[in-house]
Write a structure and sequence with these properties.
Layout (H helix, E strand, L loop, with lengths): L10 H9 L6 H22 L3 H21 L8 H13 L7 E2 L12 E2 L3 E2 L9 H8 L6 H4 L3 E2 L14 E2 L8 H16 L4 E5 L3 H10 L7 E6 L5 H7 L6 H13 L3 E6 L6 H11 L7 E3 L5 H4 L5 H13 L2 H11 L5 E3 L1 H14 L4
Parallel strand pairs: 2-5, 5-6, 6-7, 7-8, 8-9, 9-10
Antiparallel strand pairs: 1-2, 3-4
Amino acid sequence: MKKGEALCLSCSKAASLISRGLIVDAHIGLDLLDKYETRAKVLMEKLGYSQGGAQTEAVQLVNSCLKRHESMKSTRSPGAEFLAKVEEFNRNATGKNPITKVDAETGVGEWAGYRCNIGHGCSHGCLYCYAEKMATRFKRVDGAEEWREEVLQDLSTEGCKKYDSAIMFPTSHDITPNYLDAYQCHLYNILSSGNRVVLVSKPHRESIEAICAEFSSFRDVLTFRFTIGGIDTTAMRHWEPGAPALAERLDCLKHAFEAGYRTSVSAEPMLGGSEEAEKLYYMLEPYATEDLWFGKMNMVGGLRKNQDPEIVRYATELYNLQTDEEIMELVEKLDGLSKVQWKDSVKEIIEKAAQSSGTEK
């Protein structure tokens, strides 16, 4: 049988060959067959794919699962060149430890007990960025333009302790190419001390490929949580002008999945209404080994008062798409699915709806 031919077999013939061990281990093969059939069905029913398009996408998922299966058979310790870079980095780092405790149970506190940031500023320039708003408010920067200038800080994580819960790294900037080298050194220090890390990013392919290549020995304690808030590329470019496009983020999610890592998605903030969020879930779910989180854009109300009419237009449209009624419609569609999690902004609406109806949710 030629390589790849099994993917073109009928379901009954493939099942027969799998059961005889002629394609791949029986338990793996039967699972992949089920994934193929389920994926094709979901794409047609939920996302409006044609039968041919759905089958093509389903084959791609099977291929990704096979790559993940192969990746997880082995791990690779960080290379000598990388470890030498870490050693030199630690030798020159003289600053304080940047890991701090998270006291709130919302926001970062829903994902981790500690936070870590190694720089000041982010080139993504997201219009809703809370970190930029706080930095501007307290005069640490002179507005959004200065915030987009990324400044790496002199900080040290060498010999850090083992913390009692996960560390979200980063929380107020991203892993842009400017931060990548230092990020990897800090990440190694933190993970090699026995810590768990939730890596949250609007991912750059260069950064994710580099991290995946060096950290496979830490797969059990490193979770990639990629921020993908919508599927409307025009809206994404408006709200997140300097961040990677949707296609690059999808590639990063698949790459981390195929490399055997724990993968998750944050759709906070959602950049559309309930219909788009539902489509986003079905698009991404097979490549997320853990949760998919959904949350509102919390600052959208204030953005409706912006001096830029284009920002006002987008903010008003999004405000109307994320009313309590729209959010509850999304909850009714997705609540109960095993990987779906609601951020605090959605939980508040669920609780309010439960109180108004006299029931508990």
